[in-house]
Design brief:
The chain is of the alpha+beta class. The chain is built from 11 helices and 12 strands.
Length: 330
């Protein structure tokens, strides 16, 4: 049975410095339609708060993350102590929490880049994998950040500033419509239900935690590209980005990324590309001075689930955690 955690360790709230935006209760409530569950265990030696969602697929029980939740994993808090004491207490908390985890045939969550205890999950029987994102410490002076951008990209941004107006007041549902239309024009499908966006819109409306930037062509007045940015106390994520390929838009993507980095600088946080989906996009983000950062994946698969995969069954997206689409250089 879980112990009562000390209040100082067990308080979980908005913009908690120990949590990413994806781990905060209001985010999880919105994207899961309040279906997420939490294992919470604590005593005077530490506290663990582990959110998850559970579903069934082809007869298998699966545990993972809700839609639109790119990193998750547990929040672990420990009182001041020696490093060796922290290590043993972390493992004790993880082991105790896992005893309360429901039976599952498959488990997968992607951990935030700054997670320091991934090895503890391997000791607990999980497989470890790795994904990558790109991150940039935007707490440096803006001029220093500008000099860190490749010369040819700086030239592209200057030209784009002449051709596009950057707007910051697009609504989330207008962004959803623009995003959806651009996917359809490419013959692709948006795998996220509009209802998820509506719930997230309501949650974000009560918090200053996002901006949607658009690059509008000065000549035609049409939107060439848009980027949805969200942030927590330490990181600004380029959460979703899209562009209308029917609009001639040289430099629009670069302009929006530079605007996002400047916003991160004004907030005093790290810029995170929130994944990438191709080598081209990775090199594009790298040109802004961002560097690769690991997102470790903790996973478990039963023998039956492995057998199902071996004969060609494809896991649902919540256990694949595909990188979201990002802006493509133009």
């Amino acid at each position: 049975m879980p112990l009562d955690a000390p209040r100082a360790l067990s308080v979980v709230g908005d913009n908690d410095p120990d949590m990413t935006v994806f781990q905060q209760p209001w985010w999880l409530e919105a994207v899961s339609d309040n279906r997420y569950k939490v294992i919470s265990v604590g005593d005077d030696q530490g506290f663990i708060w582990w959110p998850y969602v559970q579903d069934r697929w082809c007869g298998f029980s699966l545990i993972g993350a809700p839609p639109m939740t790119h990193v998750l994993g547990p929040v672990i808090r420990l009182p001041d102590a020696k490093t060796v004491t922290h290590a043993s207490q972390r493992r004790r908390l993880i082991d105790t929490a896992l005893k309360q985890m429901p039976h599952t045939d498959g488990f997968q969550q992607v951990l935030p880049p700054d997670t320091a205890h991934a090895l503890d999950f391997q000791f607990a029987g999980f497989e470890l994998g790795v994904r990558y994102t790109y991150r940039l410490d935007a707490t440096a002076p803006v001029e220093e950040l500008w000099q860190g951008v490749k010369y040819n990209v700086r030239k592209q941004i200057r030209r784009a500033q002449q051709n596009f107006v950057v707007n910051r007041d697009m609504s989330l549902m207008a962004f959803y419509a623009f995003y959806e239309a651009n996917l359809r024009s490419q013959g692709r499908v948006n795998h996220h239900d509009e209802k998820v966006y509506r719930r997230l819109d309501e949650a974000l409306a009560r918090r200053d935690r996002h901006r949607i930037l658009t690059a509008i062509d000065r000549g035609s007045g049409r939107i060439a590209a848009a980027a949805m940015l969200i942030w927590d106390s330490g990181t600004l994520y380029c959460f979703r980005a899209t562009q209308d390929r029917s609009v001639e838009a040289p430099g629009a993507s670069s302009l929006l990324i530079w605007e996002a980095i400047q916003l991160a600088a004004s907030l005093g946080v790290t810029f995170d590309s929130d994944g990438f989906n191709s080598r081209t996009v990775a090199l594009f983000v790298e040109a802004f001075g961002a560097v690769p950062a690991q997102r470790l994946v903790i996973a478990y698969r039963s023998l039956l689930l492995k057998a199902a995969q071996a004969i060609g069954h494809r896991l649902p997206s919540r256990l694949q955690q595909n990188n979201p689409p990002v802006l493509v250089p133009t």
